[in-house]
Amino acid sequence: MSIPTNLKVVVLGESGVGKSSVVLRFITNVFNPTSEATLGASFVGKALSFNDKILKFNIWDTAGQEKYHSLAKMYYRDADAAIMVYDITKRDSFNGLKKWYEELKENGPRDIVVAIAGNKEDLVENEAVSPQDAKAYADSIGAIFRKTSAKTCTGIDQIFKDIALKIFPE
Ligand code: GDP
Ligand code: MG
């Protein structure tokens, strides 16, 4: 068996969009509808086998500092990928991604892989951002786009696989 390859993934986006829930779903396959809390620790990890490799995703979640748009520089340092999350029912959370992207470009590595997660896809009847708009924005910055739901599991594993594939193309 090969030695795991460590990948640092940072999660960005407005408070309440479901960042911690997406991370929790990916890591433990659990959804907690009343969760307010973040995972607390600086990062959590999960290994996945991918082609001939074992990838260890070390995922950095915020502890609420995103409210002040002031994530420490070390949050971004040496990140391999960033997942920018918005809530599909909240237009503002999508508009806000531009600012997160600027911050990422300012503080993150030049070649970082960026993915956009349109989360809460289970609430699609209240969708406030057209997927075409979201995809067009993602394309304009060279980002992956996926709709996700931490509640139903939709798209969660896929977005991490998309990231893996972009870092290690077949
Ligand atoms: P964060 O502030 O971005 O970390 O967001 P949280 O993960 O704390 O989630 C905020 C709220 O949205 C919580 O009540 C979650 O249960 C809820 N939530 C998160 N993801 C989803 C989802 O995919 N679908 C639905 N319906 N609710 C979600
Ligand atoms: Mg959180």
Automatic annotation (TrEMBL):
<dbReference type="GO" id="GO:0003924">
    <property type="term" value="F:GTPase activity"/>
</dbReference>
<protein>
    <submittedName>
        <fullName>Uncharacterized protein</fullName>
    </submittedName>
</protein>
<dbReference type="GO" id="GO:0005525">
    <property type="term" value="F:GTP binding"/>
</dbReference>
<dbReference type="InterPro" id="IPR005225">
    <property type="entry name" value="Small_GTP-bd"/>
</dbReference>
<dbReference type="InterPro" id="IPR027417">
    <property type="entry name" value="P-loop_NTPase"/>
</dbReference>
<dbReference type="InterPro" id="IPR001806">
    <property type="entry name" value="Small_GTPase"/>
</dbReference>
<dbReference type="Pfam" id="PF00071">
    <property type="entry name" value="Ras"/>
</dbReference>
<keyword id="KW-0547">Nucleotide-binding</keyword>
